[in-house]
Amino acid sequence: MKIRMKIMIAVASLAWGLAGCQGPQPHEPGISLDQRTISITDLASRLGLRVDETDELFVVLRGGGNTVLVFTHTEGRFFVNGKPIGPVGEVKKVGGQVWVSDALVSAIRPHLRDGATPGPTPRPSPPPQRVRGVVVIDPGHGGKDPGAIKAGVQEKTVNRQVATKVASLLAQKGVNVTMTRRRDRFIELEDRAAVANRLDADLFVSVHADSAPSPSAEGFTLYIANAASRQSYSAAMAIARSMAGTGLGNRGVRRHDYCVLVGTAGPAVLIEMGYLTNARDRARLTDSRFQDRLAGAIAEGIANYLR
Hints:
Layout: H1 3-20, E1 37-39, H2 40-46, E2 50-54, E3 58-63, E4 66-71, E5 77-80, E6 83-87, E7 92-94, E8 97-101, H3 103-108, E9 134-139, E10 149-150, E11 153-154, H4 155-172, E12 176-179, H5 189-199, E13 203-210, E14 220-224, H6 230-243, E15 250-255, H7 259-262, E16 268-275, H8 279-285, H9 288-306
């Protein structure tokens, strides 16, 4: 995926997360497949656009200076030029083609720019705001402790892959980042918390993937200790708001006395990114492109907390 597209998806994901915390929006008509359906290709054609990029989770339409991002899964939303417009509604995938309601044509069209009309001269973008702070990123499990295992996927591997991406993105923002492990090795829980305590970290974030007896359980969860500080809760909420734009289900912020949480003196959060026992969550968590999106959301949530 090109860098510009990654930025567009990251912006759309963040906008989605922010829109979600403002409550229901007044102009977001639901789309039902009780109405006539059209293929994504036909949708693009009727809007004067072209299908520029396809993925298991989204389709990108472009043309005339416009970019339309359509998430092609249940409860997916669509974005026009980086702005969240509304829910896509039900989606069908038949024969490798994606089908949606033709009502999306009238829902998207008013938000498209007129390609023949030049817009105002854009102002120079301000330099990226640097974020200060000390953050410890803890990839859960490792070494002899694989964590959850499903369909050959080991949790410890997914945790390290995403956590490494998060740490890299935070470092680019100016954050002083330390990881409890960068390799596949076992570390005692107490030693993980001790890293944050030794550095007097502004935030400790432990990264995990969940499992459940029922394969229907899905979505991400943020955990803080039962007696957690207000700062821990604020950090968890900031990360949850940002992760809501990834397309994963949001199970909210919960309290549990995990060892790494109660052992950390400063603010501490544990992220369960999704369920390896759920086929759709597992497919996303093992997909490198989705990991990029997820890591970007987690890093942005952490940065928002530190600002």
